[in-house]
Design a protein that fits this description.
The chain is α/β, with parallel strands linked by helices. Helix content is 35%, strand content 15%. It has one domain: NAD(P)-binding Rossmann-like Domain (Rossmann fold, 3-Layer(aba) Sandwich). Strands 3-2-1-4-5-6 form a six-stranded parallel beta sheet, sandwiched between helices.
Length: 136
């Protein structure tokens, strides 16, 4: 079943909370910008970073499995080989909505997620554009 990108984006944004895998302390990096984008849109968000440090005031944990509540959707900003591990973990957690930000995509990760029945946004728009990120 093929869904339009707009329908996938609407479904991704329809629930809460979200997680940003690849969240960064560095405000110049996309992992930080995507986290701030969710915050600017007043959306509940968890930062996922192996160091587990607080990032932009967001609750920060090392892995998706460490998030203390069910996650609606995951925005992934990692190198493709790590994205594949993120997808495997998301499958284990029955997360249904994945948004692979530009640069995080891998054919294997996309295939794995689609085979698991996930809604996958990939090779499309960046969430920063969709939500109207302001770099402040």
């Amino acid at each position: 079943m093929s869904r339009s990108i707009d329908a996938q984006i609407d479904a991704f944004l329809a629930g809460t909370p979200h997680a940003v895998v690849g969240a960064s302390q560095d405000r110049a990096k996309y992992g930080n910008k995507v986290l701030r984008c969710f915050q600017q849109a007043s959306r509940a968000v968890f930062a996922i970073n192996p160091r587990g440090e607080m990032i932009e005031g967001a609750p920060t944990v090392a892995t998706l499995s460490s998030v203390p509540e069910p996650i609606h959707g995951v925005s992934v900003i990692t190198p493709p080989h790590i994205t594949e591990r993120v997808i495997a973990e998301a499958i284990e957690l029955s997360i249904q909505h994945i948004w692979l930000q530009p640069g995080a995509e891998s054919d294997a990760a996309i295939h794995m997620a689609e085979e698991a029945g996930m809604s996958v946004i990939a090779r499309g728009p960046c969430i920063l554009v969709v939500l109207g990120f302001r770099n402040s």
